[in-house]
Design a protein that fits this description.
With about 220 residues, this protein is an alpha+beta fold. It contains 8 helices and 4 strands, in the order βαβαββαααααα. A 4-stranded mixed β-sheet has the order 2-1-3-4, covered by helices on one side. Helix 1 links the parallel strand 1 and strand 2. Helix 1 runs antiparallel to helix 6, helix 4 runs antiparallel to helix 5 and helix 4 packs parallel to helix 6. The longest helix is centred in the middle third of the chain and has 30 residues. The radius of gyration is 18 Å and the shape is globular. The protein starts with a strand and ends with a helix. The relative contact order is 0.13.
Length: about 220
C-alpha cells in the first residue's frame, strides 16, 4: 500500500495527492506535520511534506515523487512523449515553484511564527511574484492546458502554486493575480472543474478551516 505523509493544508502535499488520484493509484493518507523528530527525518530527510512510502522505501521532494509515479504508471501519463515537451513541462513546474510559490513563502512563515513584515519586504514580495507570473506567461500555452493540448504535471504544480500565491496576493495586496495573464483564469477554472481536483480542493478547504480554528483558539489561549 502506498502511503502519503503530510497535511492537506499544504499545496505541495496536494500536488502529489492529485497526481496519485489522476494516475489511478490506491493510497492511504497519513496526516503528519513537518518536523525534525528522528522518526520523520528517516522518512523525509529535511522533515518536509509530502513524503511518499512505497514498497521500496520512502521518497520526498514533490518533483521526484511525480517523476517516480510517472515511471511506475506511464499508462496514464502526466508527462508528454517527446524529450523536448517533457522538458517544457519540467520547466513550467520549476518556474511555478521557484518564481510563483517561493516569493510568497515569507508571508506564510510570518503567519506561522506570528511575526510581521515591513512595507519594503511586502513590496519585494509583490514585485517578485509579479515577475514570476510574467515569466510563467511567456512559456504557458493555455491550449487548453498550461503546456498544450494534454493535462500534465505542469498543470498540477502550477495550479497549486498559483492557488497559494493568489490567496496571499488577495489578502496582503488586494490583488487578483488571475487577471495578470490572458487565459490564466480560464485555465484555472478548467483545472478546478476536474473531478479529482474538486475532491482534493474540498478536502483541503476542510483541513484549512480546521487548522485556522485551532490556530485561532491556540492564539487566544496563549
Amino acid at each position: 500500500m502506498i502511503r502519503l505523509y503530510g497535511l492537506a493544508i499544504s499545496n505541495y502535499y496536494n500536488m502529489v495527492k492529485l497526481a496519485l488520484f489522476e494516475k489511478g493509484f490506491e493510497f492511504q493518507e497519513v496526516p503528519t506535520p513537518p518536523g525534525q523528530d528522528a522518526d520523520y527525518l528517516a522518512k523525509s530527510p529535511m522533515g518536509k511534506m509530502p513524503c511518499l512510502e512505497v514498497r521500496e522505501g520512502f521518497l520526498s521532494e514533490t518533483d521526484a515523487i511525480l517523476e517516480f509515479l510517472e515511471e511506475v504508471n506511464p499508462e496514464i501519463p502526466l508527462f508528454p512523449e517527446t524529450a523536448f515537451e517533457r522538458a517544457r513541462v519540467r520547466q513550467i513546474m520549476y518556474m511555478a515553484e521557484k518564481y510563483v510559490d517561493d516569493p510568497v513563502r515569507p508571508v506564510i512563515r510570518s503567519f506561522w511564527d506570528n511575526s510581521s513584515l515591513d512595507e519594503h519586504q511586502l513590496a519585494d514580495i509583490r514585485d517578485g511574484l509579479a515577475r514570476g507570473i510574467a515569466a510563467l506567461g511567456r512559456v504557458a500555452r493555455f491550449d487548453p492546458w498550461i503546456a498544450g493540448e494534454e493535462f500534465t504535471a505542469a498543470d498540477i504544480v502550477a495550479y497549486y502554486a498559483l492557488q497559494l500565491a493568489a490567496s496571499v496576493a488577495d489578502t496582503r495586496f488586494e490583488w487578483d493575480i488571475y487577471d495578470e495573464l490572458p487565459g490564466l483564469r480560464g485555465w484555472r477554472d478548467a483545472v478546478a472543474d476536474r473531478y479529482f481536483v474538486q475532491r482534493v480542493d474540498e478536502e483541503q478547504a476542510r483541513a484549512l478551516e480546521s487548522f485556522m480554528k485551532n490556530h485561532t483558539d491556540h492564539g487566544r489561549s496563549s
